[in-house]
Design a protein that fits this description.
Length: about 300
């Protein structure tokens, strides 16, 4: 961070976040993070139940997770986040709500609440566990959303809730299709060139290759025909109005290119619009994948 500040004029009010596992957190480390300039910590709790943590392959226990959250609460941080997951193997509705209630006791300014998805080339992919069905997932979401709303959390993005004024700056930039520089091992980046080309970068994933100086794994231009989908895939995850000018500003494409798709989305009840903005509807939030298919 000291070297970055020598090279890049980082804003004094910049949000600087570090991700941490609950079992790697103690007061000395937290104080060290703050002295280095970090003002926000995201803690990978995932669950407050021992059996669920074991199934997820996590190495911390519920007590460590709760202690880490309470410790973060005592520090003079700008904000802190707890990561939780739902839709876990053999998870019932009460299990999912219990995890949220434990998080609410800690009272983090920001809470990420993700549904578990099975990724290719993972243990879960090769040996799929029994996951809650769609009806149970829907009930978990409904009850969890009501509970979080009752306790002052606003859902501002598909998987993110925050107290007023504590939305994650990184999330907002990312989902508004802003640029970001990926520096470290395995980091992704998105950069808009002066000629309007949008470049995505992926750094070398394996630490050995990175340490040997092979930093860049992929560097490619996003094809223009894919930009509408890329823009809306990000932008419609946020539940705020989407200014129409942002589409042209961020993609360098004309609004006319998406007129037909926008009209179909409005007819389906996924979107509403006025002269300045598009706004995803409650119906659209529930069928986000169907909405995005219009732009493929």
């Amino acid at each position: 961070l000291s070297n970055i500040n020598k090279i890049i004029p980082v804003d004094n009010d910049a949000e600087i976040t570090i991700e941490a596992n609950p079992n790697s957190i103690d007061i000395e480390r937290f104080n060290g993070y703050q002295q280095a300039g970090i003002n926000r910590i995201s803690i990978g709790v995932q669950s407050f139940q021992a059996d669920k943590l074991v199934k997820l392959g996590r190495i911390h226990n519920p007590k460590e997770a709760f202690t880490a959250g309470k410790l973060a609460k005592t520090l003079n941080l700008r904000s802190f986040n707890l990561d939780l997951m739902h839709g876990l193997p053999s998870q019932c509705i009460d299990d999912a709500i219990y995890d949220l209630k434990q998080a609410i006791v800690i009272d983090p300014p920001h809470l990420s609440w993700y549904q578990l998805t099975i990724e290719p080339n993972t243990l879960f992919s090769s040996k799929p566990p029994v996951l809650p069905d769609d009806d149970k997932l829907w009930e978990i979401y409904q009850q969890g959303h009501q509970l979080l709303t009752k306790h002052g959390y606003q859902q501002y993005e598909t998987s993110a809730y925050a107290k007023k004024g504590f939305q994650c700056e990184h999330n907002l930039n990312y989902w508004r299709f802003g640029d970001y520089l990926g520096i470290g091992c395995g980091a992704h980046g998105k950069l808009t060139q002066s000629d309007g080309k949008i470049i995505r970068t992926i750094k070398t994933r394996h630490p050995k290759g990175y340490l040997e100086g092979r930093y860049l794994d992929k560097y490619y231009e996003v094809p223009k025909q894919e930009l509408p989908f890329e823009f809306f895939m990000n932008r419609f995850r946020l539940f705020e109005p989407v200014p129409k000018y942002e589409f042209e500003q961020r993609t360098y494409l004309s609004l006319q290119i998406v007129d037909k798709q926008i009209t179909m989305a409005i007819e389906k009840g996924y979107l509403i619009e006025d002269e300045q903005n598009w706004q995803i509807t409650e119906h659209g939030k529930l069928f986000l994948n169907s909405l995005l298919e219009f732009f493929l």
